[in-house]
Amino acid sequence: MFIDIHTHAFHPKIAARAVEHLNAAYHLTCQGAGTADDLLDRAGRAGLDACVVLCAATSAAQVEPANNYAIRLGQEHAGRVIPFGTIHPDYTAWEQELERLRRAGIRGIKLHPDFQHFWLDDRRLLPIFEAAQEDFLFEIHIGDARPPRENPSCPYKMAAILRQFPRLQVICAHLGGYHQWRASMDALVGRPVWLDTSSSTPFLPPEMLRTILRRHPQEFLLFGSDYPLYDPGEELKRLQRKGRLDDATLDLYRSNAEKILPHR
User: Fold this and answer.
1) At what angle do helices 247-255 and 232-243 cross, to 10 degrees?
2) Mean per-residue pLDDT of the chain
3) Cα(143)–Cα(253) distance, integer angstroms
4) Which end of the chain is more exposed for a tag (fewer CB within 10 A), N or C?
5) 0.70 cut: is pTM over it?
6) Pair 66, 57: CB distance under 8 Å
7) 262: pLDDT confidence band, cut at 50, 70 and 90?
8) Could you tell me which residues come within 8 angstroms of residue 106 by beta carbon, excluding any fewer than 6 positions away?
9) Distance between CA atoms of 173 and 133, rounded to whole angstroms?
10) What confidence category does residue 264 fall into, taking pLDDT thresholds of 50, 70 and 90?
């Protein structure tokens, strides 16, 4: 099964506004409309069978609505959308919310410290990691244009958490550090931790991209497009071209996610 591990899709009523926000935040023009229908149409044309759709609440008040939407997405697009819920350290009822997600069949949690306005080493996250490490797979945004130590999320903070919680299941987005790939090579690359390729190939010099892909365990690399920022089909082509990947290796990156998403 070929899976895009890193996508975003918004309710049709707010999709255009969300895309405008992404354009402004990342100084680009999103390639997609930001809806589940557009995502699945593009994914199908790219030869992908399913997409993980990530939701992140920017405040405690948004946790339950974001998770309601994730649950609904999974119901409406069963088999093709694998929704991840979200949590926030300001949200005090997180234990009950994790249980609600479990009952709904959702086993993924998205954290985006930069957009959610907390630091990845916030101590309030520690009991959440402790409680969730057996049942949930985390997808965590890592990196920013700022120096790693000045950034709410960075490869070094992620590596420290993994040392503290060795059973924690984490996908480190953006090859372990958006615009912090040298720090990722120092802290994460080469270790048995999942990295996704999202929002990396447009920026990484080809030689650095190939170095990261070569040094990291192949079974821990996952294809992610970061739709709607990028089109899944175009991202597959760019990853293959810049990474100098043969078809079998590209297929491996597209299929590795099936091994860590047992609750589809």
Assistant:
1) 130
2) 95
3) 21
4) N
5) yes
6) yes
7) low
8) 67, 70, 71, 74, 83, 84, 85
9) 18
10) very low
Give dist(CA 164, CA 125) in Å, integer.
12
Quote the tokens at residue 116. Answer: 């959610």
Are 197 and 222 contacting, i.e. CB atoms less than 8 angstroms apart?
yes
Beta strands in the chain (DSSP E): 3-7, 50-54, 81-86, 108-111, 137-140, 169-172, 194-196, 221-222
> Which residue has tokens 């593009």?
42
Tokens of 31: 């390639």
- CA torsion, ordered 200, 144, 182, 155, to nearest 10 deg: -100
Which tokens belong to 53?
Answer: 């759709």
What separation in angstroms does the CA of 263 have from each of 74, 94, 168, 260?
12, 21, 17, 9
Dist. CA 140–CA 71, nearest whole Å: 19
CB 34 within 8 A of CB 18: yes
Which is it for the CA torsion 145, 147, 153, 156, positive or negative? Answer: positive
